UniProtKB/TrEMBL annotation:
InterPro entries cross-referenced by the UniProt entry: zinc_ribbon_bacterial
Pfam families in the record: Zn_ribbon_21
UniProt name for this protein: Cysteine-rich CPXCG protein
């Protein structure tokens, strides 16, 4: 398992957020709160051979 730091923009407050990602699971979908505005963000992460190939951070509001 390797944990890597990934930076992305919060879909609510537009601040740059740092997140630690675990590449031991190839496809992941989960909810994390923004560390700045505390709104819930749906994260979709995909690794291929331990390399990050897709990262999406989406608002959960419809």
């Amino acid at each position: 398992m390797v944990v890597l730091e990934h930076y992305f923009t919060c879909p609510y407050c537009w601040e740059t957020i740092s997140m630690m990602l675990d590449n031991s699971v190839s496809k992941q979908v989960y909810i994390e709160d923004c560390e700045v505005c505390c709104n819930p963000i749906e994260l979709r992460v995909q690794f291929n051979n331990s390399e990050l190939v897709d990262f999406q951070a989406n608002s959960i509001e419809q």
